[in-house]
Amino acid sequence: MRDNLVSEEKLQEAAREYLLWELQKFDAYADYPEPEFHGSYKLQMAALRHDVKRGAIKEAEYRMGVTFYIKRSIAAILLVFTMACLTMPETVLAGYQKLIEVIETVFDEYTEYRYRVNDVGAIEEEFRPLKLGYLPEGMEEVKRRERENSLDLLYRDKEEKYITLYQCFVVEERSLVFGADTEEVEKQIYYMQDEIVRLNIEKDKIKFVWNHEHYYITGQTNLAEKELIELLENVKI
Amino acid sequence: MQPIRYTLSYYLALIDNAEDQNKFEYLYNHYQKQMYYTAKRILNDAFIAEDAVHEAFVKIARNMNKIDDETSDRTRAFVMIVTENAAKDVYRKRKQYFEKEIYEKINEDGETTSIIDECIPALEIPDSDFQGSDLGKAIGKLSDDARQVVLLYHGMGYEVPEIAEITDFTVAKVRKLLTRSKHTLKELLDAMKEEAADER
Which ipTM did the prediction report? Predict the structure, then answer.
């Protein structure tokens, strides 16, 4: 049986032949058009620069003619599209760093915000459901669903103004996805509590995404933008 | 793809010595587009392809010891295979996530609806249309894992432990794939001969 197997020499020759054929296809891509880098990356770079300004990350030594950034106290690399976990309690930061990678991908119909957590150290913390420090007059909680690592809320008033909130614990190596329709949508970014809140403002509603510490909070409302911001500014965890 | 100074810096910080950094910079500047289209061909999705290319660059940066000449066929094969694997990994992780977690939200009517409303484009790994030698065609019919291992070992002369690092397989798996592939290739060649005889 062994004698009938393909010889090493023939195998090498054929493998090389096949590989060179595959490499031709690989090389041919060099003549393809330059891919467009999607615009949301620029927003994230703006957020990165904001982080530098406020001291959450610092410039590392100038090397090879290029400046780059490292997270304070560890030589971790800021991955592409990474936004540093912007505010964390000192007790969590001590000896531990977490990079929360946010990838915002814009499709034709909706935007996908993908969160992936790369744990450098361990975190032991129970899920702390958010509380609202401010609620527009007349609004009340009509629905609540609490799970081990998530919270779903719905508030409504008599005039059909509503807000839904979804809070989720971003832990371990997993990605979370939130999709929001982006056709005819105005996008706004707010810096709140030194963090970024993204709003997708449509004709009749606003969708929002907020990466707060190691939670991600999202939701939808038909409240005015100003009221939504006031509500979010007074969220407590 | 716009050259992104921040991104290159991140990868360079993973590499210890200046010589390897120079080599990496060459790879980054010369193969980024090819890597992108390779990943996009597999993933059928431009945005996730960018993610896969990033993963591939991180992998390459951590394996610069396998690169002698950054312009050689051997290096380009290494870059190509790392990119293909990164694309498949990215796809697998996303699929696992969607299959494991279904997030629901309460909409404005108080009803529960699923957030997951999009499809993940399926992986596009077309059958090989290689037209060279019969043995080459048989190599094209091997499973992805087996073919990569055969190409890296027999085609480019990488050692088993190196192949294990490149592909994230265990050494035992690499050895097994190499051994089994020989038998599989023999069977495939026999089948091709029979087919050719039947056609006559």
Answer: 0.81
